[in-house]
Write a structure and sequence with these properties.
This protein has about 80 residues and is mainly alpha-helical. The protein has one domain (about 15-80). Helix content is about 75%, strand content about 0%. It has five helices and no strands.
Length: about 80
């Protein structure tokens, strides 16, 4: 299941329009706003996806703490712009 989540996330960020919008908003928010992208909606979607990733991690391990962050290298790589 974890591999499917990684593949879906990779497709979402690289192949879908949302990934291009996330890249544009994270690169230059003002330019993205001037070009007509819904910056607020993109930010909300990113926060919701991050919360879902946290819930998936919680369901897998049973706890979430600051000490568990080094084990999330694949998530950090996917979160980088």
């Amino acid at each position: 299941m974890f591999a499917w989540i990684i593949l879906a996330t990779a497709w979402l960020l690289n192949g879908a329009a949302l990934g291009k919008r996330v890249d544009a908003v994270s690169g230059n928010e003002r330019a993205a706003r001037y070009s007509g992208l819904p910056v607020h909606c993109v930010r909300v979607i990113c926060f919701v996806l991050t919360a879902l990733a946290g819930f998936l991690f919680l369901s897998r391990t049973g706890y979430v703490s600051d000490a568990s962050a080094p084990d999330l290298l694949p998530w950090r790589v996917l979160a980088m712009p």
